[in-house]
Amino acid sequence: MTSLDELIAQIPLRHNLISYMMFTGALVGFVFAILIWVRTPGRNRALHYYSLLMLCLAFLILDTFLCYTGWMKYTLHWNDSTEPLTLLLAPLLYLSIRFLILRKPLPFWILALHFLPALLYALSQTSYYLEPLSVKYNAYIGAYFSELPFANVPEGTEYAYQRVKEFQRWFLLLGFAFYGLLSIRLWHTHRGAFGNPAKNVRFSKYRFVLFILIAFVATLSILFFVYINYEDDGGDHYINLFISAIIWVSAIAFLSESRFFQHAWLIDKYETSSKGHKQVHLEEVRDLVARESFFCSHNPSLKKLGEALGTHPNTISRLINQHTDGNFNDFVNGFRIRLAIERLRSDTYQNWTIEGVGQSVGFRSKSSFYQAFKKQTGMSPAAYLKSGQDTA
What we know:
The structure is a single chain. The protein has 392 residues and is mostly helical. The chain has 2 domains: 4-261, Rhopdopsin 7-helix transmembrane proteins (Up-down Bundle), CATH 1.20.1070; 282-387, Arc Repressor Mutant, subunit A (Orthogonal Bundle). It contains 19 helices and no strands. The chain has helices at 4-9, 17-39, 45-69, 83-102, 108-124, 126-129, 133-144, 162-165, 168-190, 205-229, 236-256, 282-289, 292-295, 302-309, 313-323, 328-344, 354-360, 366-377, 381-387. Helix 4 (83-102) packs antiparallel against helix 5 (108-124) and helix 4 (83-102) runs antiparallel to helix 10 (205-229). The longest helix is centred in the N-terminal third of the chain and has 25 residues, at 45-69.
């Protein structure tokens, strides 16, 4: 009779492009998760949950990498130990969106409900975690190397945990569908808060939320496709290749954004200093800033805006940073550039110089006007007029 050690030794090792891509995805995931966590202030729950998501994904990819390549035979005791993490993915994605949009804390018991399914699943698999190595060997080769002989297991071995384990993938699908709908509903309800004239920021809060929503839908689709076409864990490497791609795209997008290395990125940088002051809505700010008497003046300021709205300037600054693609200056310049384009195309201002039009809408100099114009439209005033584009 072949001993268990001999059976384990027969498990082949394989390395190919798929395995290399998964390993790279796991490595990038670990580094990226740590980097986000280190760079994120304690109050930014959205990015903290996102870093936890990246960490879970990295562990899942690493687990699949070990299984796919055969290296799992050296860590067989840990086979299927990361399964509960799969049930954390959808809640963590949702919480990232939720805290980024609303910025309001949740009671502990509500947060606990989001993580309860993963905990309950882990508890249901406790007996499997305590099973002898022969049982875990059989579970592993059954999914990845079914042509290899199975090991003898102790008499009386019960597989009660298997009844729950068989539904794990469907729990995962259900979770992604449920939290995906919650996230889309949340985004749809608050989508008006994302509007802003500024267009200079490549990776804004709005685009970040859209990226997560697209990831939700795409992940649900790839999960459903693989689960329909593969039994057990046979197609998990395809899922993990897709997850690796998400990690790579996330890392490139985050790190290519220069503001990532500043604590002002996607955070409430005035969270503490504006406490106790009247809360205002973005539309109130927009209505006041949109008045020509305000944005066309040469010295519009947060202080003046705060006095007009009866609130602290930091409250307004936080609101603009939180719900738009730029800061207060970008917000004001958006209205200035719109009016400048109207005047440049108007017969009334036909004899005005471009510099004169810029000064008429509030810019102190030609260089500041050109710089703001290019930041908002991507081209100089003269080039914009020649392009024949509609008013921004």
